[in-house]
Amino acid sequence: MNRVYVCSCFGVTEQQVKKHAEDGACTPRQIASACKAGTDCGSCVRRIQAILGRGACPRRELADQGQPILTDLADAA
Ligand code: FES
Question: Any idea where the BFD-like [2Fe-2S]-binding domain is (predicted)?
Fold first, then answer.
Protein backbone atom coordinates (compact mmCIF):
# COMPACT_ATOMS: atom_id res chain seq x y z
CA MET A 1 0.00 0.00 0.00
CA ASN A 2 1.43 3.38 -0.90
CA ARG A 3 1.65 6.04 1.74
CA VAL A 4 -0.72 8.96 1.46
CA TYR A 5 0.68 12.13 2.94
CA VAL A 6 -1.91 14.33 4.53
CA CYS A 7 0.56 16.94 5.73
CA SER A 8 3.59 17.32 3.51
CA CYS A 9 5.17 19.98 5.75
CA PHE A 10 5.68 17.45 8.52
CA GLY A 11 5.44 14.22 6.49
CA VAL A 12 2.35 13.05 8.36
CA THR A 13 0.45 10.23 6.68
CA GLU A 14 -3.27 9.48 6.63
CA GLN A 15 -2.55 6.40 8.72
CA GLN A 16 -0.93 8.54 11.41
CA VAL A 17 -3.87 10.94 11.50
CA LYS A 18 -6.28 7.99 11.82
CA LYS A 19 -4.18 6.56 14.63
CA HIS A 20 -4.29 9.85 16.54
CA ALA A 21 -8.05 10.03 15.96
CA GLU A 22 -8.46 6.55 17.44
CA ASP A 23 -6.42 7.72 20.41
CA GLY A 24 -8.96 10.47 21.02
CA ALA A 25 -7.96 13.42 18.84
CA CYS A 26 -11.32 14.40 17.37
CA THR A 27 -10.52 17.86 15.99
CA PRO A 28 -7.83 19.21 13.64
CA ARG A 29 -6.52 21.18 16.61
CA GLN A 30 -6.00 18.01 18.65
CA ILE A 31 -4.34 16.33 15.68
CA ALA A 32 -2.04 19.35 15.45
CA SER A 33 -0.98 19.05 19.06
CA ALA A 34 -0.42 15.31 18.61
CA CYS A 35 1.78 15.43 15.50
CA LYS A 36 2.08 19.09 14.39
CA ALA A 37 0.10 18.46 11.19
CA GLY A 38 -1.60 21.68 10.11
CA THR A 39 0.59 24.04 12.11
CA ASP A 40 2.82 25.24 9.27
CA CYS A 41 1.17 26.21 5.96
CA GLY A 42 -2.28 25.03 7.05
CA SER A 43 -3.23 23.62 3.63
CA CYS A 44 -3.74 20.14 5.07
CA VAL A 45 -6.30 21.14 7.70
CA ARG A 46 -9.22 20.47 5.35
CA ARG A 47 -7.87 17.02 4.55
CA ILE A 48 -7.49 16.29 8.25
CA GLN A 49 -11.06 17.45 8.78
CA ALA A 50 -12.22 15.11 6.00
CA ILE A 51 -10.48 12.13 7.64
CA LEU A 52 -12.07 12.94 11.00
CA GLY A 53 -15.44 13.39 9.28
CA ARG A 54 -15.26 9.88 7.79
CA GLY A 55 -15.72 8.44 11.26
CA ALA A 56 -12.09 7.93 12.27
CA CYS A 57 -13.14 9.18 15.68
CA PRO A 58 -15.42 6.70 17.49
CA ARG A 59 -16.97 9.36 19.73
CA ARG A 60 -18.20 11.31 16.72
CA GLU A 61 -20.07 8.27 15.41
CA LEU A 62 -21.89 7.90 18.72
CA ALA A 63 -23.05 11.50 18.47
CA ASP A 64 -24.39 10.88 14.97
CA GLN A 65 -26.43 7.91 16.18
CA GLY A 66 -28.16 10.14 18.74
CA GLN A 67 -30.20 11.87 16.04
CA PRO A 68 -33.94 11.37 16.60
CA ILE A 69 -35.96 10.16 13.62
CA LEU A 70 -39.19 12.07 14.11
CA THR A 71 -40.67 11.51 10.64
CA ASP A 72 -40.78 7.72 11.13
CA LEU A 73 -42.70 8.13 14.40
CA ALA A 74 -45.21 10.49 12.78
CA ASP A 75 -45.92 7.98 9.99
CA ALA A 76 -46.48 5.13 12.46
CA ALA A 77 -49.04 7.05 14.55
S1 FES B 1 0.81 20.48 4.69
FE2 FES B 1 0.34 20.38 6.79
S3 FES B 1 1.00 22.28 7.62
FE4 FES B 1 1.58 22.34 5.54
Answer: 5-53
Atom index in ligand 1 nearest the CA of residue 40 equals 3
Q: Is the pLDDT of residue 77 over 70?
A: no
What domain count does the chain have?
Answer: 1
CB 12 near ligand 1, within 6 Å:
no
Per-residue confidence (pLDDT) for residue 56, from 0 to 100? 55
pTM of the complete model: 0.69
Residue nearest atom 1 of ligand 1, based on CA coordinates: 7
**Domain hosting residue 35, numbered range:** 5-76
